[in-house]
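Standup notes, structure subgroup. Blocker cleared on the magnesium ion input:
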Amino acid sequence: MGRIILTGDRPTGKLHLGHYVGSLRNRVLLQNEGNYDRMFVFIADVQALTDNADNPGKVRDNIIEVALDYLSCGLDPEKVTLFVQSQIPQLHEITQFFSNLVTVQRLQRNPTVKAEMVLRGFGEGEHQDDNKRGLPVGFFTYPISQAADICFCKATTVPVGEDQEPMIEQCREIVRSFNSTYGPVLVEPEILLPSSAACRRLPGTDGKAKMSKSLGNCIYLSDSAAEVDAKVRGMFTDPGHLRVEDPGKVEGNPVFTYLDAFCEDSDFERFWPDYANLQEVKDHYSRGGLGDMKCKKFLSKVLNDRLEPIRERRHFYEKDIPGVYEILRKGSQAAREVAAQTLHEMKDAMQINYFDDAALIQGQAAKYNG
Ligand code: ATP
Ligand code: MG
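Run returned:
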């Protein structure tokens, strides 16, 4: 069994640096290494609708944004099947069959579901005055639909950020349950996390634990150089570092976390020859005597250096929007064919292939007619 890679993102906004270091950068590396049988990357619009049911325009408009972000990071439609989730109807059938193998109690224990319920204001209350919305069934069960997204192509490898760990674990449980109940059709996927902690969960510019579209603390891949400068200048740092001569904290300081995620030794030679590497900067900042602004200026240069080729490719693809939709249309067509094959195997194993099963029909006929 070869290696099949799959990941996706919700079209709830443009992609940001968290997506990049958490998953996108890995995907492009994997794509270019070429050590796989097939690679799929998809736009999870059905999942986005689970908490944006009242905002279809937002989801619709962000399909092209996410597609442009993918292409601008270097995903190559010749090598990777890029598709849109809603265009694969088989995913709904797979989700339905999986939902019989998962309990409400198990979903309630899923830590990502719990955290996102709080983030999105879904709670017990159904009334306006408690400031909470009721919990949509589709949102509550999205880990099941996500398992279908992974299983339709028998993915072996899922490169994602660490917030997705509970999702992959739940998917593995579903696969084990399906295979032991009906027969060995599906494959248990492995999560592929970035190697450094900074990349597994990049914090927001406000210092909050996770950069997230929903929190508005993002630097987007499509931000201009001036926007990146301004966002970095306004970044949260160590609130105790008031005067330049004060000792500063590196731990939990997002400026340094971003540097951990992005900077390389060669950047010092190019942009900040006073230091040889990041450790020297961290040591100086911790001792005191190094101001936040100098560190931010350097970070801004490093980020813009990484983002510039991405912006350039984006501008290239922006000139051919119909071509980008065509890439998604073709990819969706190809993904449907794969999904139909897997669903066929699943239905065989589940014995719901009545009309293809001559033995069943003859057996029932014999029962009634001797
Ligand atoms: P939303 O707020 O709508 O949930 P999001 O910003 O969390 O959006 P998703 O589309 O849910 O983004 O996540 C897509 C992928 O990007 C997942 O693999 C996720 O782990 C990864 N990812 C998102 N944010 C970060 C982050 N701050 N650090 C590392 N990985 C991230
Ligand atoms: Mg998310």
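Discussed briefly. DSSP finds 17 helices and five strands in the chain.
Next: hand off to the docking folks.
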